[in-house]
TrEMBL record:
<dbReference type="InterPro" id="IPR036388">
    <property type="entry name" value="WH-like_DNA-bd_sf"/>
</dbReference>
<protein>
    <submittedName>
        <fullName>DUF3116 family protein</fullName>
    </submittedName>
</protein>
Length: 284
């Protein structure tokens, strides 16, 4: 695969700034010390529930028939996955009336005890972005449109195109995406050589998705091919992103680097004053 073909230029708009909000995925579940969900369908259901969380009511409110339709799940599979998420303290059902739509609270994700191989509830930490931040429970903010039903559906195509590893890599890329500092994904985590275009992945990233560097690079190349991420030539000064190549005048104290940038970005990120200033120096 010739990476040169995936380097963007400023001739046309290259990225989508979403105005449809973001949702939280707690960082802990993507860790080398945290086990994978029992199957990819349960993880995809959890991501769907995270995306469906209504901050106004502080809960998920969805008819099971709607979830089944959106994810192409049988009622038996849905109930099995919901039961696992409830029993292991990821969600807590808030109504039991079978004639009402399914309602549940998202919980602060549990700790995991390796010796006993059991999840330990953290209900003592209220699920709220401010409290999670204060209590040092990291989370990833992802544009709602980035995770689609098409990715999450229980179909042969979705299982082939969106494996467990690919889902984890895609989400974890967003966790390393800091537009104000890096203009995209931290180039010290996913590094692209300017001359050879060779991709190098930091070892910690590989540990957290439980894969080899070669496997992670294969997934990244797939994401590039499908235009979920793009390669951008960027300008840095003292390790901080200044703007994209072609928008900043070169000088000796500036460094050219190739970075990855997700195709779908939250428009809210560009409302900060620093990003309002930098936006005019970016290929968007």
């Amino acid at each position: 695969m010739n990476l040169k073909n995936y380097i963007v230029n400023s001739s046309n708009p290259q990225f989508l700034l979403s105005s449809k909000g973001q949702f939280i995925i707690q960082r802990k579940i993507f860790s080398d010390a945290y086990p994978d969900f029992p199957d990819v369908l349960t993880l995809k259901l959890y991501l769907y529930l995270c995306r469906s969380f209504e901050w106004k009511y502080m809960r998920i409110k969805k008819a099971k028939s709607t979830i089944q339709s959106n994810l192409n799940m049988s009622r038996a599979s849905l109930n099995k996955s919901l039961y696992w998420l409830e029993q292991n303290h990821f969600i807590k059902r808030s109504n039991q009336n079978k004639h009402q739509m399914y309602q549940a609270e998202l919980l602060t994700v549990p700790d995991y005890c390796i010796p006993t191989q059991q999840y330990i509830s953290r209900e003592d930490v209220k699920f709220h972005s401010g409290i999670l931040k204060i209590r040092n429970h990291g989370y990833i903010m992802i544009p709602s449109e980035a995770i689609t039903n098409k990715m999450l559906r229980d179909t042969a195509t979705a299982r082939r195109r969106w494996s467990l590893l690919k889902v984890k890599v895609f989400i974890l890329l967003y966790s390393h995406c800091w537009l104000e500092y890096f203009g995209g994904i931290n180039p010290d985590v996913i590094s692209i050589d300017k001359q050879t275009h060779k991709i190098t992945v930091d070892a910690s990233f590989c540990y957290n998705v439980k894969a080899t560097e070669k496997q992670v690079i294969t997934v990244i190349l797939s994401l590039l091919k499908e235009k979920h991420v793009k390669v951008v030539p960027a300008i840095f000064k003292s390790g901080v992103f200044m703007g994209d190549y072609g928008f900043i005048e070169s000088s000796r104290d500036l460094e050219n680097r190739l970075i990855l940038r997700p195709f779908l970005l939250s428009g809210k990120k560009f409302e900060k004053q620093e990003m309002i200033n930098k936006k005019k120096y970016m290929i968007l």
